[in-house]
Write a structure and sequence with these properties.
Elements: H1 3-22, E1 43-49, H2 56-62, H3 67-76, E2 89-95, E3 103-109, E4 112-118, E5 124-130, E6 134-143, H4 148-155, H5 162-175, E7 191-200, E8 206-218, E9 221-229, E10 235-238, H6 256-263, H7 274-277, E11 280-283, E12 289-291, E13 296-303, E14 309-314, E15 319-326, E16 328-329, E17 338-339, E18 344-347, E19 358-365, E20 368-370, H8 372-375, H9 386-404, E21 408-409
Antiparallel strand pairs: 1-2, 2-3, 3-4, 4-5, 6-7, 6-21, 7-8, 8-9, 9-10, 11-19, 12-18, 13-14, 13-17, 14-15, 15-19, 16-18, 19-20
Bound molecules: zinc ion.
Length: 416
């Protein structure tokens, strides 16, 4: 979740709490002869957020506390001042008997509230309250009209919050990153389904937990991704044949997660075609990390003519990849350096012959340029065998049953 989205969510939670607190009890009706208590105490509540460059002391004073109380409240609060960010939400509560509040709530996260209350002696005491997350499992279905993000956003609207849907799109792209370049390979009409854990708070906020199974149908052929947890608790995804989704090469030099965080998830303009200039262009914000699509050795890192800042990497089996127009290089990227698949080797820029920030990406096989879209379709990863395959078979059966069901709550226990 982005910090901005987090702040919005926290803001919404605070607003909801404030509305709830303002709902006043119905007026009491006395029996004949009974004297009504003239001093019915009414609770009030005010939400506020920390302004940019503002200190918590100033905020508390703005909310009616005198400097001494503000200092006492902060002293009682286990807040790390370095963790305070502009936009952080607080709520002040009080009653009609006093002018300033007698309770301050600091919202440190979706599920964590530090509540500071004035006690009998006039001092302040803090309690750290955690809201309980509950977990269930949902099936989300989507059909691609434009992007992966839009498909999940639409298909999951009834079941997941907006931030949870975006996170799910990024997670799907991560799971399939060896098989599918989500920014290029999806076609209108491609379908997806995903069984995912949903974690919810009593406030209505939700986030995603583990993805348990997924299916992505590209041009009528579905590749499933079924989660299998090893004995160490480490999870891997296998297709319906029991072959690892991990392979020799990633399908794209930019992570969908990093690309679309700069572009809001819309489809990226393609700047050129492969035939025109023997490379693929990815439009992305300047500074987006560029990753090597496979293990290898850097054979060039520096300035080279129209390429601008260029990294060239040699992989196994005569494969060479080039990443051009970089703004700069990743840590320790120089000629001779060993790099591991997914490692950041540079950052998107516009150096050399370039009209705007983009990555120019080339694949050569034994000296000849090849279209990355086909050249990187590496063979599937290692297949499961023996007892592992048997265990996988049982998990696959449950996962496929869940994938076949209607959208919404999944009642079977799919996790392994
Ligand atoms: Zn290019």
């Amino acid at each position: 979740m982005t910090p901005r989205a987090g702040r919005l969510l926290i803001g919404a939670v605070v607003a909801a709490l404030a509305i709830a607190a303002l709902r006043l009890p119905a007026p009491r009706v006395g029996k004949p002869g009974e004297l009504l208590d003239a001093t019915v105490v009414r609770r009030w509540s005010r939400a506020d957020t920390l302004g940019r460059g503002e200190t918590m002391t100033t905020l508390l004073q703005r909310r009616g506390f005198d400097p001494l109380d503000a200092a006492d409240i902060l002293e009682a609060t286990p807040l790390d001042s370095r963790r305070l960010r502009a936009g952080m939400a607080i709520e002040v509560r009080g009653d009609s008997a006093g002018s300033a509040g007698d309770e301050v709530r600091f919202f440190l996260g979706l599920d964590r509230v530090v509540v500071v209350r004035r006690d009998e002696s006039g001092g302040w005491r803090a309690t750290d309250e955690r809201l309980p997350w509950t977990t269930d499992t949902v099936l989300i279905r989507g059909t691609v009209q434009s992007t992966l993000y839009a498909a999940i956003d639409e298909g999951g609207a009834e079941w997941l919050s907006g931030t949870a849907r975006r996170e799910l799109a990024w997670t799907m792209a991560d799971i399939y990153e060896y098989r599918v370049d989500m920014s290029r390979d999806l076609q209108r009409g491609d379908r997806l389904r995903v069984v995912v854990e949903r974690e919810s708070l009593p406030t209505g906020a939700s986030r995603i937990g583990r993805v348990l199974a997924a299916g992505l149908e590209l041009g009528g052929r579905e590749v499933q991704a079924i989660r299998l947890e090893g004995e160490t608790g480490r999870a891997r995804f296998y297709d319906q044949e029991g072959r690892s989704l991990a392979a020799t090469f990633l399908r794209a030099p930019l992570s969908f997660r990093r690309m679309s965080s700069g572009f809001g998830g819309r489809r990226h303009p393609v700047l050129g075609t492969w035939r025109a200039h023997k490379g693929l262009d990815y439009s992305a914000a300047a500074g987006t990390p560029v990753r090597t699509i496979g293990d290898g050795t850097v054979t060039f890192a520096g300035r080279r003519g129209g390429f601008g800042n260029l990294v060239e990497i040699r992989h196994l089996n005569g494969y060479v990849t080039r990443y051009a127009h970089l703004r700069g290089f990743g840590p320790a990227i120089r000629s001779g350096a060993r790099v591991a698949i997914g490692q950041t080797i540079g950052y998107v820029g516009s150096t050399g012959l370039s009209t705007g920030p983009h990555l120019h990406f080339e694949v050569l096989v034994r000296g000849a340029h090849r279209n990355p879209r086909t050249a990187l379709q590496s063979a599937a990863g290692p297949a499961l065998r023996g007892a592992e395959l048997d265990r996988f078979g049982a998990i696959r059966r449950v996962a496929q049953q869940a994938l076949a069901g209607p959208s919404g709550l999944v009642r079977a226990a799919v996790a392994n």
